[in-house]
Structure formats: C-alpha cells, structure tokens
Amino acid sequence: MTTLTLAKALNEGLRAAMDADSKVLVMGEDVGKLGGVFRVTDGLQKDFGEDRVIDTPLAESGIIGTAIGLALRGYRPVCEIQFDGFVFPAADQIITQLAKMPLRSLGKIKLPVVVRIPCGGGIGAVEHHSESPESYFTHTAGLRVVACSNPVDAYTMIQDAVRCDDPVVFFEPKRRYWDKADVEFGAPGLPLDRARVAREGDDVTLVAYGPMVKTCLEAAAAAEEDGRSVGVIDLRSLNPLDMPVVRDAVNRTGRCVVVHEAPVFSGLGGEIAARVTEQCFYRLEAPVLRVGGFSTPYPPSRLEDHYLPDLDRILEAVDRVFGY
Amino acid sequence: MTAPTAPPELVQLLTPEGERIEHPDYDIDLTAEEVRSLYRDLVLVRRVDLEAVALQRQGELGLWASLLGQEAAQVGSGRALTDADMAFPTYREHGVAWCRGVDPLHLLGLFRGVNHGGWDPYEHNFHLYTIVIGSQTLHSVGYAMGIQRDGAEAATIVYFGDGATSQGDVNEAFIWASVFNAPVVFFCQNNQWAISEPLEKQSKIPLYKRASGFGFPGIRVDGNDVFACLAVTRAALRNAREGQGPTLVEAFTYRMGAHTTSDDPTRYRVADELEAWKLKDPIERVKAYLFKNQLADQEFFDKIDAEADLLGKDLRARCLALPDPQPGAIFDHVYAEPHALLAEEREQFTTYLAGFEGAQ
C-alpha cells in the first residue's frame, strides 16, 4: 500500500500501462517536460522518451485526429485535453471519427484511444476551466465514458481504459487531484463498466460520479447525524450505465437523488431518473430528484460555490425526497 | 519529345494533344506496356464511375460522387504507391480505390446504403471513405507518425479537395506533419469547385504555395496528366519514405461532372468552362500518345472498351444483388467489447420484431 494523490495514482496507472504495452503512447499539450499542467504525466517522458510521450502542437482536433491515425497503425494513444472547456475543437474528431470509425469498418478497425479530460469546477479558475461536458459524449454512440472519483479507482480505471479496445472518454475530477488514499499497486479494480456502492444506505440513494462522490459521502455522513441512512453510488461508468447496481440500491431505499455538477437540464441525471423510474416504479416512494448546475454558463469563480452542488443543496434535496 | 511549353509552375509531361514534354525536375520512363496499363486504368475507372451514376439515376444508389475528369490525378497518384504505403481517401477516390485493388462493389455498397464503408482498410492499405471534409488528413499524419515509430519504409498519402484546404483540420495536419517531419504526401485535387463555390472563395494564392508557410515543399502538377501525376507523387512518396518529410501536391484538374448526383452545376457555372476542360481530357491525351507513337493499335482500344463494358455490366449485376442488411445489424460493431446498453436495446428490438412474426 502506498498513499497517493489522485493525480499521482493516474500517473502510476499510466506508467504501469506503458510498462505493460510498448504500443501505449501519451500525447497532448505540455505532457512532456512539464508533466502536464496537473502533473498527471510527470516524469513519463523522461522514462519512456519523446516518441512515447509526445508534446503536441497546441490544437485539440489535431491531438485526437492524429491519435486516431496512430491507433489505425496499432498504437494505443492516451490523449490529454488540458481542460474540459477546450475539448470542443476536438469534438468533431471525437464524435464523427473516433466514435464511428469502427462501425464504418464493420469491426475491422479498433480504436483504443483514451481521451483524458480534467473536469469540473471548484478550483477558482477562469472561464472554460471548470466545465462538465460529459453529456455531450454520453450522447454519442461508439464512445465509452467513465469518471473516476478517488485515487484507488483512478489507478485501475486508467489502466482498464488503456486496455479497452473501444475509445474511452476519461473524466478526471480536477478539484480531487490532490485527494489522497492508499493504493495497492498491481491490484485489479472493478471492471471499467461497473458502478461501485460507495456507501450503503437504507433510506435514500444518492447517485453521483467524479467530483460529486466525495460531496455526497460528506452529505451522507451529515445526514446520519440526523438519523437518516443515506447510501451513495459512484457510477464510475457513465456510458454504459451500470443500472443493476443503481436499481438494487433504489429498490432498497425507494428514494433516489442524482447529483452532478453539470446543468440539470438535459444532463445525465435526467437519463438516470428516467431509468430508475422505469425499473423501480413500484418501489419508489417519491420522484427521482436531481441536484446539479443551473441552466447558465459556468459562473465567474467568485460565484461558483453557489452554482456547484454542495452539502446543503444535497441535504435539501434529501429533505424534499422525504416530503412526498 | 519537345521543349517545355506549359507554364513553369505546372508540372506537365504529356500535353492535352498527347505530346511528351520535358520537365527539368521531374521525368518518367515508362515502357509501352506501362502506358497501356495506365490507359486501361483510366478507361475502366471512368466506366465504373459512369455505371455508378447510371445506377443512382435509376434509384439503385442513394447518391454518387462522380470522379469524371479526375481520373489521371487518381490513377497517377494511386499507381505511385507501394503496397506498404497507406492511402486515406475522401469519398471521391474511386480511381485510387481501383489502383489499390478494392472491389468497386464496396464503394457502391456505401452509396447504396447497405453500410457506411465496410471494406477492410488493412487488406489493400486503403482507408475507408471519409465524408467529413478534411478529417482524414489528421488520420494520415497520425498513421505516418506510427510508421516513423515502427521504423518502417512506407509513407501515407491523403486525398482532399480545394475546399478542404479551408478546414482547420487540414491546416492542423500540415502543422503536425511539418513539426514531426511525418512521411505523408498531401494530395490535393484542385478540381476548381467546392460544390458551387469556386476556388476564389477558398484561397487568394495558388494552393500549392500554402505549403511553404508550413515549412515543406508544394508542387502544382497537371492533374489531367497521368504521367506527371505519377512522376510527382512517386518523388514525393520517395522523399517521405527517406525521411525528408511531407509534400503538398496540388493536382490542377477539373470536376467535369456535378459535385454529386444531387447537385446541379448549371446553376453556378458556365458551359464554356466545361467545354474548355474537355479539350484537356485525361484519357484522350494518353490515347493520342499511344496512337501517335504506335504503341497501341485499334484492336487494343477496342479490347479495353469491351473490358470496360463487361466491368460495368458485372458491377451493375452485383450491385442489384447486394442484399439489404438484417435489421439487427444496426447494433453490430458499434463497440468492440460487450456493452450493456446496446445489449439491452438489441434484445428489446429483437423481441419487438419477433412480435410481428406470423402476423398478416
């Protein structure tokens, strides 16, 4: 066991993936000498060389487009998009090419490309550095979309994403990069498409992923003091969703609140609410509620604490879900 | 052989009248058999295209993007490739597909709507058609970076049009290729028209001159001259394989047909322009050359024409026999690994369809 930050756990996971397979490449802006703006790729270029850890020109579409070409040649590129708000120049390559080319080839082509995206707010950043664009990608068939929430998962999920023969959009909760946990090197994790029960609970189920898992766990601990048993599901995989785990939990509690940073409207929470309603209809004591961002652009950082779901907003929703 | 007559910026080895001319930097030494073979390619490719247009007009294809007029650019560059080189086409490279050995039926399948491509890109080192303009330029550069990492003796060639040069992806591909010295040949078929927009809407300077700003050579070649296209592409590919980096080849040609079968060029261009370009036809000049130099007789030309007719007839029959895919094929190959959501939807859809079995 080694105590690692989430950023370092990703770094160790990438290192293990590169050790295991010489076809694994890391590419992106500033991933080489600098080690990435969040240091996730720290030291990799020194150890694996400039041919395997590639500092690219500053153009996101180019990063993904050339990664596709490298994958066509048999490589397994792991691309870093520096910030969530900068993925959009690459959206065309991700949506029209990366997601669809294997189908276009009737399976002759596999594109094992990982697109790493630091996501979410809470770090006092300027515009375009705090966004949660996951729904754009969960809506695109052909992509797998995952989000890690803690160092232990980060370490195994990044390795599983690299091993996966499908393209994977990999969200990293940037405000949790410095959270620490004990990580066991070489230990396997849950399969990449599985959700995790982060906390058992009998009265209400919170469903979250990425940065909101920790916030939900804190809310659950606070609710316990009020005598409520709140469970937390960490989805880990956003496409596909691991509905059996969610269904089992909600069937037990009869109440469900979905929490994410992204705007509620047209967000992933709507999909989860619909599925929970379909699958747990006779066990539900209340409608599925959602807590998330407003239907506004991400606000200036002095206002972000009001925009981001926090303990109180989650607990307020928990209260409401008991009001039915 | 006569002295150069073409404008100096245009590499030309065979005039529209079928005269061989010299160029100080590029030349080519072809046997009579090789010239006859190129002629055969040009004629058969045009015949495939003609048959496909007819199939679309008869409702057997949803759409077709004709290559009429661009046969020399495609056959010349396509025949410059080695087996190890990888070609990245747009959706109009039927002539390159032919040179790579891809069954034209596969191309028809896409436009008929039985699949979105479907041939094995690795079987003939001919990538799938890309419909989004310019996207494939980045794929070709990435692939070329893979060739570099493999230490292989190969290059990529990527096709795109004059309109595509305005796309961000194409410009990013130029930058990437230049910075990484990637073994790639950018083969731009400037056919003068991006649907209805003439070249002036895309560029204030000749396209080949763009390359110098990115730090690699650009060459303009007579795109209707199969000899020149072969010679220039061969040299560019050799340079790429030998580590000298990318080249932009601008094949100056003309889209003699519509953009696609859905297009109506009479709305935006004058008939005289087409008539002028007909005099520069890529096939006629090779025929004139073969005839003048007594490298082929009428019997040869008749034989090629008969082969073309057979090819068209056979292609038509096989196109009409293409089965529609089974409904469940919607779910195939979306993911390489098992995917719970897709499995669930496939099962629901299968059950739904089964509900109609036996119904009147």
From TrEMBL, chain A:
<dbReference type="InterPro" id="IPR029061">
    <property type="entry name" value="THDP-binding"/>
</dbReference>
<keyword id="KW-0786">Thiamine pyrophosphate</keyword>
<dbReference type="GO" id="GO:0016491">
    <property type="term" value="F:oxidoreductase activity"/>
</dbReference>
<feature type="domain" description="Transketolase-like pyrimidine-binding">
    <location>
        <begin position="4"/>
        <end position="179"/>
    </location>
</feature>
<dbReference type="InterPro" id="IPR005475">
    <property type="entry name" value="Transketolase-like_Pyr-bd"/>
</dbReference>
<protein>
    <submittedName>
        <fullName>Alpha-ketoacid dehydrogenase subunit beta</fullName>
    </submittedName>
</protein>
<dbReference type="Pfam" id="PF02779">
    <property type="entry name" value="Transket_pyr"/>
</dbReference>
<dbReference type="GO" id="GO:0000287">
    <property type="term" value="F:magnesium ion binding"/>
</dbReference>
<keyword id="KW-0560">Oxidoreductase</keyword>
<dbReference type="InterPro" id="IPR009014">
    <property type="entry name" value="Transketo_C/PFOR_II"/>
</dbReference>
<dbReference type="Pfam" id="PF02780">
    <property type="entry name" value="Transketolase_C"/>
</dbReference>
<dbReference type="InterPro" id="IPR033248">
    <property type="entry name" value="Transketolase_C"/>
</dbReference>
Automatic annotation (TrEMBL), chain B:
<keyword id="KW-0670">Pyruvate</keyword>
<dbReference type="GO" id="GO:0016624">
    <property type="term" value="F:oxidoreductase activity, acting on the aldehyde or oxo group of donors, disulfide as acceptor"/>
</dbReference>
<dbReference type="InterPro" id="IPR001017">
    <property type="entry name" value="DH_E1"/>
</dbReference>
<dbReference type="GO" id="GO:0000287">
    <property type="term" value="F:magnesium ion binding"/>
</dbReference>
<dbReference type="InterPro" id="IPR017596">
    <property type="entry name" value="PdhA/BkdA"/>
</dbReference>
<dbReference type="InterPro" id="IPR029061">
    <property type="entry name" value="THDP-binding"/>
</dbReference>
<keyword id="KW-0786">Thiamine pyrophosphate</keyword>
<dbReference type="GO" id="GO:0009083">
    <property type="term" value="P:branched-chain amino acid catabolic process"/>
</dbReference>
<dbReference type="InterPro" id="IPR050771">
    <property type="entry name" value="Alpha-ketoacid_DH_E1_comp"/>
</dbReference>
<feature type="domain" description="Dehydrogenase E1 component">
    <location>
        <begin position="43"/>
        <end position="308"/>
    </location>
</feature>
<dbReference type="Pfam" id="PF00676">
    <property type="entry name" value="E1_dh"/>
</dbReference>
<protein>
    <submittedName>
        <fullName>Pyruvate dehydrogenase (Acetyl-transferring) E1 component subunit alpha</fullName>
    </submittedName>
</protein>
<keyword id="KW-0560">Oxidoreductase</keyword>
